[in-house]
Amino acid sequence: MAFYSYIFSANYKRFATNLKRIAKEKHRSYLALTIDTYYSILKYGIGLSDYLNYKFYDRQKQERKEYVGIKMQNIFYEKVSPSAYKKRYTVKPNFLKEFHEYTKRDFFVPTENNFEDFKKFITKHEVFMSKPYDGLGGADVTKIYTKNIDDLKAFYEKLITNHLFLEELVIQHEKLNALCDTSVNTIRIMTFNDHNKPKILWAGLRIGNGINSVDNFHAGGMGAEIDLKTGTLIGPALDKDLKEFKVHPKSKVKIDGFEIPYFKEVQEMVKKAAKESDKILVVGWDVAITPDGPLIIEGNRRPGFDLVQVTSDRGRMDIIREVLKHVEK
Fold first, then answer.
1. How far apart, in whole angstroms, are the C-alpha atoms of residue 315 and residue 72?
2. Which of 211, 210, 207 is nearest to 225 (CA)?
């Protein structure tokens, strides 16, 4: 059912516009591509945007079979990251509390009777982030300056009404700040807890576009895969519309070969955190690099495969096969 909800929630008008553009560029029939799209949805369990993002119009049958669509993801994650245990990850204040060793920052959850604690938090932090308890893709994440709050009580009550909490601002490493200074550019790194022997499945850097305040792939950001052996980016970076960036559009920093600071420490940290998750076996950790080293922003029990497959330029069913091979033992 979740698969069909995903399909029916798509932006059909935007998809049709983009498919017409592809048909024109490729000298293909728009009708034939439309038919192929819906065939691919039924056959391979992908979504409308996946057809474009994964360039299915150029993929042969064997290549298509290797792509992880939303239907396969639903099956996979119910096996390795059951929804019965999701609140530890999806409710962000819960995550910050339970993984405090790795998140390493202050936060405040408003209730009906902790206004005094709220005043202490904003007195302590001149600038902080406001976030929804369980938001996705960077939605409704806002940077707030204490000096700009005119009415403390009204602001506090608004937080309660809108189910928002406050979080200490993360200051990123100067090298990543030079790459893009409008957002915290985070590493998405997928781990698998294989019988208490954690493995890293994939890693990539999500980079802000220099305009928006978040780095998310679905909010105008871009991404590049990280070489797990060297900790360097494999360029160019790509955005959701498959636009390539050899250098960052604002900072002009070169993408390919860009070295991630503290990457060895990142790997050690997420492996240790993965051991603390014996029910949710596959996690997509979002990691920020500060001047003092890495910290975890959040853990995702259903890390998507779109960024993984777009930056790899191929289907990554191999990741699922590798995990299930061990889980099913």
1. 12
2. 207
What's the confidence (pLDDT) of residue 183?
A: 87
Q: Can you tell me the distance from the alpha carbon of 316 to that of 186, in angstroms, rounded to the nearest whole number?
A: 21
- According to DSSP, the β-strands at 282-290 and 187-194 are antiparallel
- CA–CA gap between residue 255 and residue 233 (Å, rounded): 6
Pair of tokens at residue 237: 């970076």
Of 55, 52, 56, the residue nearest 43 (C-alpha): 56
Residue type, 38: Y
Phi-psi category of 266—alpha, beta or left, where left has phi over 0 and alpha has psi -120 to 50? alpha
Residue 293 gets the label, from left (phi > 0), alpha (psi -120 to 50) or beta, of: left
User: Residue 291 has what pLDDT?
Assistant: 97
SS (H, E, C) 45-82: CCCHHHHHHCCHHHCCHHHHHCCCCHHHHHHHHHHHCC
Residues of the chain with pLDDT under 70: 1-10, 135-139, 212-219, 329
Look up residue 243 and give its amino acid: K
**Residue with structure tokens 């792939």?**
217
> Closest Cα partner for 248 from 262, 238, 260?
238
For residue 181, the 8-state DSSP code is S
Are 191 and 199 in contact by the 8 Å Cβ rule? The answer is yes
The rounded distance, in Å, linking the Cα atoms of 106 and 140 is 19
Please tell me what DSSP assigns to residue 247: B
Pair of tokens at residue 301: 């029990």
232's CB contacts (< 8 A; 6+ apart) are 226, 257, 258, 259, 260
pLDDT tens for 230-255 read 999 998 999 988 999 999 999 999 99
Beta pairing, strands 107-108 & 127-132: unpaired
